[in-house]
Design a protein that fits this description.
- This protein is mostly beta strands.
- Helix content is 0%, strand content 55%.
- The chain has no helices and 15 strands.
- It has strands spanning 5-6, 9-10, 26-31, 34-38, 41-54, 57-71, 74-80, 98-99, 101-103, 106-107, 111-120, 123-130, 136-137, 143-144, 150-158.
- The strands form 4 sheets. Strands 4, 7, 8, 11, 12 and 13 form a 6-stranded antiparallel beta sheet that branches. The chain has a 5-stranded antiparallel beta sheet with strand order 3-5-6-15-9, with no helix packed on it.
Length: 161
């Protein structure tokens, strides 16, 4: 087929730019990411997130900077406040894992790597990796965080929205 370039967008294989709605479902915006566990009490010096949604694909960037953590809470650790819920087929389906970068976080035990993945429609859970061991869903017992800890990531997921 032929490739058609219109307004800098290659839409190829005979798609007619005049009648194409390929980018009608395009959105950019901001969201407020939050580090969460059960009963956690976190203070932030910065919470920033941006997203781009094209069709059912959402790509997010975020950073949270902690300035206080009076309680670690309990149980699983996750990033909440997603701009759109994850799609129902993607929850717990291991459809993709995205690296989570951290600064001033003390890993306990043999954990050395962290990833985000969807365990519910509203949040991304944190997985911990260790040498020659399966992934473990992260809990507050896997690390020490506090004032000065930073979490940042770029990740994508599918949404039903």
């Amino acid at each position: 087929g032929t490739m058609v370039v219109a307004n800098g967008i290659c839409i190829g294989n005979g798609i007619n730019n005049a009648s194409s709605n390929i980018l009608d479902d395009y959105e950019e915006g901001t969201w407020t990411p939050a580090l969460a566990t059960a009963s956690v009490n976190v203070g932030y010096s910065a919470q920033s997130g941006v997203y781009t949604k094209i069709g059912n694909m959402v790509t997010c960037r975020f950073q949270v900077n902690l300035n206080a953590m009076t309680s670690n809470g309990s149980g699983q650790v996750f990033i909440g406040g997603l701009p759109f819920n994850t799609d129902t087929d993607g929850v717990n389906a291991n459809l993709g894992r995205s690296p989570l970068q951290v600064y001033q976080v003390d890993f306990l035990g043999s954990a050395f790597d962290m990833m985000l993945f969807s365990t519910s429609a509203e949040r991304m859970s944190i997985l911990f990796g260790a040498d020659n061991a399966p992934w473990t869903v992260g809990t507050v017992s896997n690390w020490v965080v506090g004032s000065g800890s930073i979490f940042t990531a770029i990740f994508s997921y599918l949404t039903d929205a």
